[in-house]
């Protein structure tokens, strides 16, 4: 099948202040040294890769004292020009939400502030061609289920709740990704049995990833419908995606992985 790329607009934030000073997910360890300059170089390669594929790349200014701002996907969830804001679970990241709100409001987007905990596009995925336009929403570790209803009201799209059960996959975007406007790739065991049945029903042609690739942040990817930007460690998943007609584009984000994220965590999609 011929896969067609669609030009996208993305928001990224440089890891100028990136470090690991606390533990809020199973991947973080303050005893493991972080090379911030190396993280900036890897992030720059990601930014240039996305721009080189023809996509618009906007940047959010990093702020001192917020080392996780590089994970820009968590700051909001945007559909049809409406930004549903984030409210972080952990106080260490709380101030990031205001930085994202200022970005959207200053740029003229319609911003809907949240009233319950949700971590933006980290726990939401949008597929405009799936069943007339569908939002997938994760819960179990960060985002509260009440946020699913709030997002549905804010964005006017049906929301399907999916329960995450493995703490290594604490956000939806570590366990599932949209490959195009109507299909996904995911790691089944990250979800409850009932949520797995829902995914099989909604996406019978989905690409299924093994645990090895999922644990290497292979599902934390960004796809434009043809080009799939993913972690260099996931060669097996890259071959599977190529066999399905997609074009894998590997990037090395090993330094940022120390904070519990990879490609998708660094990229918020701006859907106008």
From TrEMBL:
Pfam families: DDAH_eukar. It comes from the Bacteria. This is Amidinotransferase. It comes from Pilimelia terevasa.
